[in-house]
Design a protein that fits this description.
Bound molecules: S-adenosylmethionine
Radius of gyration: 22 Å
Number of helices: 8
Number of domains: 2
CATH architecture of the largest domain: 3-Layer(aba) Sandwich
């Protein structure tokens, strides 16, 4: 049974598309997408031998040989130009997702939709999309097993600017997520706020320590 996180990613894949799932690990997502007829076929990209083998096993066990194809390689290098309509990259940090997109830019030719699911650092992807003429068209945030996940959907053909005059804030938090404000959203940002408050507190303590050290030095000088 596919996780709630990956099911939500699949929900944003346009019907009847050809998919590439990069960094797929076990290939659960592409096999589910083809078995449920969301995609007619899929390519699975994996850089690591173990996950690549596990992807091949899932494909065989699902009877999807010929419809889902596993390829071993780094990021988008496993793709030929104009081979797929949609790319999913899920379960990694925003910086890794961004670097996979950036080093495979020429392979994005012909791709219409990106569905990206960063575990952390979603803002890095928003900046990259904006700087490379991809329109952010939707976002989602969900909680599963106590962890919060974000999903970013971007389109090439749609020229929609989701940003207002408060673009910096929206790139950081998410222009659609700010509007939707669901339970997971509040949980994430409450947690982030607590993190920043903790850092602030530590900085204040460090400052106080610095002041105490300074006082001791001054007293020592006076005693000499
Ligand atoms: N996408 C799956 C999910 O969301 O459950 C698996 C996520 S798993 C944490 C990340 C996978 O990405 C690993 O199997 C890793 O080998 C693969 N990976 C990391 N960097 C990669 C790259 N540059 N190209 C292809 N695969 C990569």
């Amino acid at each position: 049974n596919l996780s709630k996180r990956l099911k939500n990613v699949v929900n944003y894949i346009p019907n009847n598309s050809k998919l590439a799932d990069i960094g797929s690990d076990h290939a659960y997502l592409p096999c589910y997408a083809v078995l449920t007829n969301r995609c007619h076929s899929a390519i699975v990209g994996e850089i690591t031998e173990g996950p690549y083998k596990s992807a091949c096993a899932t494909i065989r066990q699902s009877g999807l040989d010929g419809k889902v194809e596993a390829r071993k390689g780094d990021g988008l290098e496993v793709l030929n130009p104009n081979e797929v309509d949609v790319i999913t990259i899920a379960g990694m940090g925003g910086s890794l997702i961004t670097s996979i997109l950036d080093s495979g830019k020429e392979k994005l030719e012909g791709v219409e939709t990106l569905v990206l699911q960063p575990n952390i650092g979603a803002h890095q992807i928003r900046y990259w999309l904006k700087d490379h003429n991809w329109s952010l068209v939707d976002e989602d945030i969900l909680e599963e097993d106590g962890k919060i996940y974000e999903i970013l959907v971007a389109k090439k053909s749609v020229h929609k600017n989701p940003f207002s005059s408060e673009m910096e804030k929206e790139l950081f938090i998410g222009p659609y997520l700010i509007q939707k404000k669901n339970e997971a959203f509040f949980k994430k940002w409450k947690h982030e706020k607590q993190n920043y408050e903790r850092i602030l507190h530590q900085l204040e303590s460090a400052q106080q320590t610095e002041e105490t050290i300074q006082k001791v030095k001054e007293i020592q000088l006076k005693l000499q």
